[in-house]
Design goal:
about 210 residues, alpha+beta, Jelly Rolls, four-stranded antiparallel beta sheet, 3 helices, binds 2-oxoglutaric acid
């Protein structure tokens, strides 16, 4: 469903089996040899998520992408799994957009997790100017997702992103402000065995 030009909320996009498989992969990645961590951003504040970047690392101190985690432990960002790439491409294609993802920011939100309003603008100017979309996939507890305009002070719309939903913003919506105001505990599908929420945002660094 197109909620604004270039912005699409695809409710129930992933089957429960696909969600289960992805949750398993997210857990293995986040607790693997290159573990997720809580970034400290450039103002000195801690983020309210655990983060692991795949394919390319987003440095919370410089707001730039890099190959190794120079803001944390110097480890190289793990590769983006092929099946994740395929899924993100398919979701973009389903709304008529093209994305060749080369990185993913995987975040885990506990019951206190949240993310302030921000723009995703650290990919290359060319990628952003071309309107290459960000594809977001949600797993686990429902999030109250805020989607605003191109300026921070514009009104925001709150949408509930449930487990298995995808959200795509590209074209004229690529630089819209967005964030997560809260997580609704206990709302993950029964049988998924998740407390909290995983969110994956797939991006294409350059054209
Ligand atoms: O968790 C979400 O739904 C949004 C995540 C996000 O805004 C980001 O990773 O930049």
């Amino acid at each position: 469903m197109e909620i604004a030009p270039g912005a699409f909320h695809l409710g129930g996009r992933l089957s429960i089996d696909v969600q289960r498989a992805m949750v398993g992969q997210c857990r293995a990645l986040m607790d693997g040899p290159v573990p997720a961590y809580v970034p400290i951003v450039r103002g000195g504040g801690k983020m309210h998520v655990r983060m692991l970047c795949l394919g390319r690392h987003w440095n919370g101190k410089t707001y730039q992408y890099e190959d190794t985690r120079t803001d944390f432990d110097g480890l190289a960002a793990p590769p983006l799994p092929d099946e994740f790439t395929v899924l993100a491409r398919e979701i973009a294609a389903a709304v008529g957009m093209r994305l060749v993802p080369d990185l993913c920011i995987l975040n885990y939100y506990d019951a206190e997790g949240r993310m302030g309003l921000h723009q995703d603008k650290d990919e290359t100017e060319r990628s952003i100017a071309a309107g290459v979309p960000v594809v977001s996939v949600s797993l686990g507890d429902t999030a109250r997702f805020l989607f605003g305009g191109l300026r921070r002070r514009e009104p925001v719309e709150a949408r509930m992103l449930e487990s298995g939903d995808a959200f795509v913003f590209g074209g004229p919506a690529r630089l819209r402000y967005h964030g997560v105001s809260r997580i609704i505990p206990g709302t993950a599908p029964p049988g998924l065995d998740v407390i909290g929420r995983f969110n994956l945002t797939f991006r294409q660094y350059d054209l």
